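Cast an eye over this sequence plus tokens and explain the fold to me:
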Amino acid sequence: MAQAGIANHGRTILNAIRDSGNLKLVSCFDIHGAANEGVAREFGARPASNFEELVGNPDVEAIALVTPNHLHAAQLRTAAAAGKHVFVEKPIANTVAEAREMIDLMRSAGLVLMTGHNTRRRRVFRRAKLLLQEGVLGKIVAVEANLSRPAGLQPGLPAWKADPSKCALLPMMQLGIHFIDTISYLLQPVQRVSCFAANTLMPGSVFDSTAAILQLESGIPVSLTSYYVSADAYFLRIYGTEGTLHCFPTRMKLELLRNGELAETREEDFSAEGSESYILQMREFGECVRSGKTPETGGEEGIRALAVIEAMVASVTKRSVVEVDEILKT
């Protein structure tokens, strides 16, 4: 396969391709030519001078798009026209309309489309899913989550991330969307959204601090916050009538109640996980290309998560509650 975009997170995906066991990097492309040639040498691949050359390589069966959000739709069109399967990093596209076009195009061409929502594959969330299926928390009553990082305070932020036309609602589009997909996986899809956002520090009009109240299909309320100008935060808590589950990147704490009082605490450590979720993701992509199976996080999962972000944008603009299905119908 080939990959477009090799810097930063692109490196994570390159390594996952290498370690997948069923994929091989044949070619790569990045706008930074020297870096692209260096990666090509390291992986024994062919450096492409442009995206069209990358896609046109007859030895390439599939393309990984680890590129800015606003480029995904056009790049996928080119890849689909060349008969290539596509792995696209989240978010699937810049808009729901683009995402729907991408899904329809790949489906009609009989090609595999996978969206890079790796977070649900982390050990902590796979374990959380099992505990929820076992009913250890009793009836679920609420969810609370925060995924933030100080990228807006640090040098080197790509200009497109601070451009609302290319990356709407920056923290949620780049960070919070991980938990939107994961909550859908663990419990149910989001049905409606109310969101607040502010520009607190970053230059221009970009929103760098966001908070949303979501409601799942069953009515369960979710509090989701995401900031681009704060210290790192990464937690997801699920509250039930019989306990609370605290999920962190590499560990979990389960607090069990008896008659409403804390009766037992259990902790599990997942620090040995490393990059496993990315490796599993890319291995599954390879399996789907070979078998024609639909990926766990395919186009529909990608568009559903993106629709929640668009609903948040609409909520901020209209100062109202927005139904996700209304966004999906547009």
